[in-house]
Design a protein that fits this description.
- The chain is globular and about 60 Å long.
- It has helices at about 10-20, 35-40, 55-60, 75-90, 105-110, 120-130, 140, 205-210, and strands spanning about 1-5, 25-30, 45-50, 70, 95, 115, 145-150, 160, 170-175, 180, 190, 195-200.
- A 6-stranded parallel beta sheet has the order 3-2-1-4-5-6.
- With about 230 residues, it is an alpha/beta fold.
Length: about 230
């Protein structure tokens, strides 16, 4: 499999190292030449020098032949822009790292549902360890063809959970409303701005995007800001 990393952060470097040891192909995009020079002595992988949020540079990685795009720079805005560009170019899966949890709601609205917040994950893990619990990641719980899908409810989604049009083998698992967790029954009303999480068969993901109105732009404009890469 082939993984593309935007940004040579410590997280990206550690993940890339593991993937290379497991025999996967890796390409790292980084805008600092010094980092590339340093890593090229340790890693047998591809490198691209430049802004990883630019469509022209991401196209050089052949998105249609890549499996995952990891946007792991130290800048939330850069990661979000790079993720949107990568998704529009045809990457099958895009993973977005954000440090500020306030961006999470925006990421869900944009359809970036594979979002990671390292500080929150580590904090929860440490708290669980303190209380003697054995924390498990969702990736180990959802096996085989199971997957999750999240969206932010709009006006057209308002109504009881039971009336939400879902494909077969799909069910609303929980709702986050004003930072509160709701485990809904069929009569629970969905309200505007609710974050709704669905468990489903992975074959339904494309249909869910279409049914629930998560728009994917074909070609975004060139970002005008100066994001990292």
């Amino acid at each position: 499999m082939k993984a593309i990393f935007v940004g040579a952060s410590s997280m990206a470097v550690m993940a890339a190292q593991r993937l290379l040891k497991r025999g996967h192909e890796v390409v790292i995009i980084e805008r600092e030449k010094g980092k590339i020079d340093e890593l090229s002595n340790e890693f047998d992988c591809g490198f691209l020098l430049g802004d990883g949020a630019k469509p022209s540079l991401l196209r050089e990685t052949n998105p249609e032949e890549s499996d995952v795009l990891y946007c792991l720079t130290g800048e939330d805005q850069t990661n979000i822009i790079a993720s949107l560009v990568g998704r529009s170019l045809g990457f099958d899966k895009v993973v977005t790292k954000i440090q500020d949890p306030s961006y999470e709601h925006i990421c869900i609205e944009l359809g970036l549902d594979a979002t990671i917040i390292p500080a929150r994950t580590i904090g929860r893990h440490l708290a669980d360890l303190f209380e003697g619990r054995d924390p498990s990641e969702l990736s180990t719980i959802f096996r085989y063809d199971a997957s999750t899908f999240s969206f932010v409810a709009k006006e057209n989604h308002i109504g009881p959970v039971a009336e939400l049009a879902l494909p077969k083998a799909s069910r609303v698992m929980c709702i986050y409303r004003n930072e509160q967790l709701i485990v809904p029954d069929e009569d629970e009303p969905i309200e505007v701005d609710d974050e709704v999480m669905i468990i489903t068969h992975r074959k339904n993901l494309e249909a869910l995007h279409e049914q629930l109105g998560v728009v994917v732009d074909d070609q975004p404009e060139e970002p005008g800001a100066k994001p990292g890469g």
